[in-house]
Amino acid sequence: MMTPIKGIKRQCQQNKNRDKTVNDLFSTAVSRFRQPIESLFNWLIQKTDIQKAIKVRSTKGLFIPIFGKIASAFIHLIF
């Protein structure tokens, strides 16, 4: 999993300035990669209300409603 780089506490200012450009470029690249994926999952959650599927007790009982809701969301998107 790729995540943006966080600053290190108690790091001297000289090292922070040296690494800042590289860290900013990496964080920007990660954000550009993750944003469309997070948007897709947010859209799926909004259209299918998929988070209510947590209440099921078996794997089979979980996959049937989830795949049905995802299929209906994509059909709704197409038409």
UniProtKB/TrEMBL annotation:
The chain crosses the membrane at residues 61-78. It comes from the Bacteria. Keywords: Membrane, Transmembrane, Transmembrane helix. This is Transposase. It comes from Flavobacterium cellulosilyticum.
